[in-house]
Design a protein that fits this description.
Structural class: alpha/beta
Largest sheet: 7 strands, mixed
Protein name: STAS/SEC14 domain-containing protein
Strand order of the largest sheet: 1-2-3-4-5-7-6
CATH topology: Transcription Regulator spoIIAA
CATH class: Alpha Beta
Distance between the termini: 25 Å
Strand content: 25-35%
CATH architecture: 2-Layer Sandwich
Shape: globular
Organism: uncultured Aureispira sp
Number of helices: 4
Helix content: 25-40%
Length: 134
């Protein structure tokens, strides 16, 4: 199943991985308004299910305020895998993790781990293993 916002395409895969992609035509920086729209749609897509989140390092600027908003939400994710395929994307991801308070969790409320991967397949393998854990 696929959901869309102005900024994102959210794909709920049959293996309980929710893939979040930035829309090709989205070139603006995220604002708090956009973050709220995105999270509302992600929550609708997840619908309370236990899922793994497959995300990509953003290509646009994300403010500390917007990152803090995303980080403050409760969730049912078992983990978030961020794909960073280039050296610069990995640098951005590491800065992001420092800004949210550390490499181990993206969401302090549900303690869901966050890990950065160089490939989508590595990220999917990790998420499937997290989903297999009880």
């Amino acid at each position: 199943m696929e959901y869309k916002t102005r900024a994102l395409t959210i794909i709920v895969r049959p293996d309980d991985i929710v893939e979040i992609l930035t829309n090709e035509d989205w070139k603006e920086a995220d604002t708090l308004e956009i973050a709220k729209e995105n999270t509302a749609m992600i929550e609708k897509a997840i619908n309370g299910k236990r899922v793994g989140i497959l995300n990509y390092v953003p290509k646009t600027y994300v403010s500390k305020e917007v990152m803090a908003y995303y980080n403050s939400l409760d969730g049912t994710a078992v983990g978030t895998a961020m794909v960073a395929t280039s050296f610069s994307a990995r640098l951005i991801a590491n800065v992001y993790m420092k800004l949210i308070g550390g490499p181990s969790t993206i969401n302090k409320k549900n303690k869901a781990p966050l890990k950065i991967f160089p490939t989508k397949q590595d990220a999917i393998s990790w998420l499937l293993a997290k989903l297999a854990e009880k």
